[in-house]
Design goal:
By secondary structure, the protein is mostly beta strands. The protein has a single domain, classed as TmoB-like (Ubiquitin-like (UB roll)). Helices cover 12% and strands 32% of the residues. It has one helix and seven strands, in the order E-E-E-E-H-E-E-E. The strands form two sheets. The chain has a five-stranded mixed beta sheet with strand order 4-3-7-5-6, with helices on one face.
Length: 102
């Protein structure tokens, strides 16, 4: 039996591991924005996807950039890690800052 969660079914939210991903509310702050935003992240989504999600939510106030870093607890997080691998927990703060690097 499929459990409906909004417009998705449980099967649609299962990553390749076969485990249900949980939504985690996080506070995101984008460089150049005047507001912090509450972002719902999935445990299995990458840091890159999370940073883009924050940029999409703030795009009315701040232009998107392809070069950025995500900072959590004072450390830059690799964009290929998942939210769970990076150790982000509910109501944690993360910052997306512009990067001049490659």
């Amino acid at each position: 039996m499929a459990i409906m969660t909004g417009s998705e079914t449980e099967e649609a939210r299962l990553p390749k591991t076969g485990r249900l991903c949980m939504s985690i509310p996080l506070y995101g702050f984008l460089e150049g924005d005047t507001l912090g935003l509450l972002v719902l992240a999935e445990e299995g989504e990458t840091i890159l996807e999370l940073a883009r999600k924050l940029q999409d939510a703030a795009c009315i106030r701040v232009a998107r950039s392809q070069k950025f870093e995500l900072i959590h607890a004072g450390k830059t997080i690799a964009p290929t890690l998942t939210v769970a691998q990076a150790g982000l927990e509910q109501l944690d703060r993360f910052d997306v800052i512009w990067s001049s690097g490659p």
